Design the sequence.
């Protein structure tokens, strides 16, 4: 197995995840099979219990793993299906070592960070790197490892030591270290400063790792004199100094790396030049250039709880992008804090309230994504009601589907107190209930998670037609609450239709309103399986409906 390690220096948030994904894309374009691992040095077992405000969205994998959003980038860029073991955390490593210690596996030895923790990290990396993720038999050729955080962080020290040992163990032909660093420009002079990168590389070398390639992040392309300075003081050949400057969209980054012959430097270090072919990136070039040339846009009102940090809905944003580009449109997302739509905000923050409603009413479609807790729920219901009554295309995901059910029960059935037990445990009309298998005492990994099958109840519904009249769909889930099966009959009699159910037939998965052009709610998260060249069917449906082209598309797809 060949390993490519991506480390970061100077500051966090430089885009190591996108860099790692892009390097994977370029190597895959050279005919190699690629897998990837993300190391997160935090003590949490997984990302499942972390606030989206603090860490961005929680990405869900087929096997139910709740992982860092960078694994979403890997899946989208490389078109692979990763496992929860592809995300290593300090919490997972310490948990596995302490479980062994309790079982007596260490034969009475003193358990220490070196060698026991570092050995566990190496074993984990080597075993996970062998798991095929591209649907083919046998292990990949190259494993791209992204080390989260910044070199010098106390919490990442055991990982750096383990990776130093791994590099020595596998030999120089099987290990390539790429260090991502920042080249800031200070003051009015506008000089590109290399000193922070020099210090970062010095720190890395002091820990026993020497970078083979240096990837510099900057606003503008690097000057040749800056490259020469970096090469001289960082001990890296000038042809191995790569530059990722700001680009119009991230699909340009694999092309940027290809244009700087990054693949040649990596393949040379890994002794793979004879095995690889020249990178075939025609599809990426077309996607990047197509996106740059788009002029027409579609306005999407995103009504959510965590709109202050767009990374909280990263996969939703990417799925909208994939669907829009497929229709030669540029997504124009209007972020609306759900609480700004509520009546209370008309008194407390009248300007924000008026602006939120103006934005909602000028949108071509409405999307209510997932979330937890009761903040902003009334605002989401008002958005769902507005979309339902005004024939505005609506897509509700997870919580967004439950919101549609509660709003329908209140407005159409007249159940004024209809609610979810998540928001009101004593509600007389619980239309959304806690799932029987859920845990009320433990939060981590206790939801209904991962890929589950949804059986479509009829082929004569929008969802079935968008999915190519398939009898079932496999999509990823992350929820603790579900629509109450006892009220389904009443809701359907009033006009709401549940066109998708789980294999037991008791759990509602997809709802539609047949009298509406596009009013769809899904309990699953279709955004997690959307890919640049294969947009999610439901996101595509939302964009088609928003532009008045859904019926023509469905007729064409279904040959009628």
Sequence:
């Amino acid at each position: 197995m060949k390993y490519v390690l991506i480390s970061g220096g100077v500051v966090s948030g430089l885009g190591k995840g996108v860099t790692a994904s892009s390097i994977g894309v370029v190597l895959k374009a050279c005919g190699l099979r690629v897998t990837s691992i993300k190391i997160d040095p935090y003590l949490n077992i997984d990302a499942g219990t972390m606030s989206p405000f603090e860490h961005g969205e929680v990405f869900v994998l087929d096997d139910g793993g709740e992982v860092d959003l960078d694994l979403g980038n890997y899946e989208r860029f490389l078109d692979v299906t990763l496992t929860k073991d592809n995300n290593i955390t300090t919490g997972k490593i310490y948990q596995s070592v302490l479980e062994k210690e309790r079982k007596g596996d260490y034969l009475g030895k003193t358990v220490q960070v070196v060698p026991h923790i570092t050995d566990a990290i190496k074993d984990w990396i080597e075993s996970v790197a062998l798991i095929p993720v591209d649907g083919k038999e046998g292990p990949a050729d190259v494993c791209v490892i992204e080390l989260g955080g910044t070199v010098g962080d106390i919490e990442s020290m055991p990982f750096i030591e383990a990776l130093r040992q791994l590099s020595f163990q596998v030999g120089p032909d099987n290990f390539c270290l790429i260090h991502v660093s920042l080249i800031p420009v200070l003051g009015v002079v506008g000089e590109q400063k290399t000193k922070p990168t020099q210090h970062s590389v010095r720190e890395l070398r002091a820990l026993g790792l020497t970078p083979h390639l240096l990837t510099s992040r900057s606003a503008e392309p690097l000057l040749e004199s800056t490259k020469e300075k970096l090469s001289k003081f960082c001990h890296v050949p000038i042809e191995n100094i790569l530059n990722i400057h700001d680009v119009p969209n991230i699909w340009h980054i694999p092309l940027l790396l290809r244009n700087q012959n990054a693949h040649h430097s990596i393949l040379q270090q890994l002794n793979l030049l004879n095995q690889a072919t020249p990178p075939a990136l025609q599809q990426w070039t077309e996607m990047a250039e197509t996106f740059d040339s788009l002029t027409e846009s579609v306005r999407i009102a995103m009504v959510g709880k965590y709109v202050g940090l767009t990374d909280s809905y990263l996969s939703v944003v990417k799925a909208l992008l994939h669907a829009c580009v497929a229709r030669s449109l540029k997504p124009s997302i209007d972020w609306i804090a759900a609480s700004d739509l509520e009546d209370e905000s008309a008194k407390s923050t009248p300007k924000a309230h008026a602006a939120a409603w103006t934005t909602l009413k000028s949108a071509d479609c409405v999307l209510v994504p997932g979330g937890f807790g009761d903040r902003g729920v009334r605002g989401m219901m008002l958005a769902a009601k507005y979309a339902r009554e005004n024939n505005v295309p609506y897509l509700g995901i997870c919580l967004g589907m439950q919101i549609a059910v509660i709003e329908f029960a209140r407005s159409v059935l007249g159940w004024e107190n209809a609610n979810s037990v998540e928001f009101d445990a004593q509600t007389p009309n619980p239309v959304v209930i806690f799932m029987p298998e859920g845990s009320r005492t433990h939060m981590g990994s206790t939801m209904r998670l991962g890929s589950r099958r949804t059986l479509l109840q009829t082929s004569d519904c929008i969802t079935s037609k968008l999915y190519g009249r398939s009898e079932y769909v496999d999509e990823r889930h992350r929820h603790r609450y579900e629509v109450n099966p006892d009220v389904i009959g009443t809701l359907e009699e009033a006009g709401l239709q549940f066109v998708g159910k789980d294999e037991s037939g008791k759990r509602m998965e997809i709802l539609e309103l047949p009298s509406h052009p596009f009013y769809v709610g899904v309990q699953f998260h279709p955004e997690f399986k959307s890919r640049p060249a294969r947009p999610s069917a439901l996101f595509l449906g939302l964009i088609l409906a928003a532009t008045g082209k859904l019926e023509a598309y469905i007729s064409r797809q279904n040959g009628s």
